[in-house]
């Protein structure tokens, strides 16, 4: 019968020599106590594996669970919509216009987090300017090597202008509650196609770097990132997945073009709508259907530009 990880019986007034066993215990039940110079901690639910007996005291001992490893990863990624190859950075118009939310937007979009979700940041973090200014929220997933379609854990992150993905304090690496090992890393955005590393990344509690802006980091699938030329060439996540369904589509049912027209009113194509909306493909804080720097053209360009019924799918297993 599995009862407790540690129990003890005092057989006489003489105690065992001083010892301390696992000062931090992780279990559904248990506790700790002291008897003279001996400190003991125990958990409920594990089988006893050894007995210590000095003739005066009896101690039965089981397995103690170690603290979980906090895997840390420094990720770099660019979004096509706000990226400028002339500067090598992304615009932070959502932040500078005061419309970037303090809470992650993905739960409201129907994304099912594993272990994460509901993350929030603070106004001082969104007040940071320069290359570390926040562009938008992203989701980072860890997937195993056996079943790459299975998300083991997912958390929200903040994407900076220079491409760094950081935690809610605006500076620290993202951390995950998984054992040290090899994982595929996925970056998602609410209106760009997701991207996953082809090769598993060896992760421990020491931060490891994953740079999706660099061709040296191979991605899963075919053309999972878009190549941008210019003064600062880079690989970026494809823009235009307005419906957040893993596909960029210009025509037909469930396309990404129509929601833009609906957002601006549906009748006057030259209207605009200001705010934090998924139809804002270039993330400049304004939804625009026609004219220069509109949000519709990138969708057509990214499906090929000539056949409006073509589609582009996210390269995920």
Describe this structure in words.
The protein has 317 residues and is mainly β. Helix content is 6%, strand content 33%. It contains 4 helices and 22 strands. Strand 7 and strand 8 (89-90) form a beta hairpin. It is globular, with a radius of gyration of 26 Å.
How are the secondary structure elements laid out?
Layout: E1 6-10, E2 30-35, E3 38-43, E4 48-53, E5 57-62, E6 70-76, E7 83-84, E8 89-90, H1 93-96, H2 123-126, E9 134-143, E10 151-160, E11 164-166, E12 174-177, E13 181-189, E14 192-196, E15 201-203, E16 208-211, E17 226-228, E18 234-236, E19 247-249, H3 258-263, E20 272-274, E21 286-288, H4 297-302, E22 311-313
Parallel strand pairs: 6-16
Antiparallel strand pairs: 1-5, 2-3, 4-5, 6-11, 6-12, 7-8, 9-10, 9-13, 10-11, 13-14, 13-15, 17-18, 19-22, 20-21
């Amino acid at each position: 019968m599995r009862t407790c990880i540690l129990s003890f019986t005092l057989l006489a007034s003489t105690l065992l020599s001083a010892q301390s066993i696992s000062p931090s215990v992780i279990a559904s039940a248990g506790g700790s106590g002291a008897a003279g110079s001996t400190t003991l901690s125990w958990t409920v639910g594990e089988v006893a594996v050894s007995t210590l007996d000095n003739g005066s005291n009896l101690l039965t001992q089981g397995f103690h669970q170690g603290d979980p490893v906090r895997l840390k990863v420094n990720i770099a990624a660019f979004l096509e919509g706000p990226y400028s190859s002339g500067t090598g950075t992304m615009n932070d118009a959502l932040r500078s216009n005061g419309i970037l939310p303090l809470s992650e937007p993905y739960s409201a979009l129907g994304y099912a987090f594993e272990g994460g979700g509901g993350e929030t940041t603070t106004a001082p973090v969104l007040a940071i300017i320069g290359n570390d200014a926040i562009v938008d929220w992203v989701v980072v997933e860890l997937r195993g090597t056996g079943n790459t379609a299975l998300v083991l854990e997912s958390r929200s992150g903040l994407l900076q202008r220079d491409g760094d993905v950081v935690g809610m304090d605006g500076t620290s690496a993202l951390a995950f509650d998984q054992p040290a090992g090899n994982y595929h890393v996925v970056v998602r955005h609410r209106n760009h196609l997701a991207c996953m590393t082809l090769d598993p990344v060896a992760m421990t509690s020491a931060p490891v770097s994953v740079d999706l802006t660099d061709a040296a980091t191979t991605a899963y699938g075919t053309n999972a990132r878009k190549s941008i030329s210019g003064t600062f060439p880079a690989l970026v996540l494809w823009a235009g997945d307005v419906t957040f369904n893993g596909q960029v589509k210009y025509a037909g049912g469930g396309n990404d073009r129509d929601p833009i027209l609906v957002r601006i009113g549906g009748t006057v194509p030259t209207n605009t709508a200001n705010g934090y909306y998924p139809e804002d493909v270039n993330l400049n804080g304004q939804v625009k259907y026609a004219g220069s720097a509109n949000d519709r053209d990138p969708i057509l360009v990214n499906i090929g530009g000539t056949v409006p019924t073509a589609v582009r799918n996210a390269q995920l297993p």
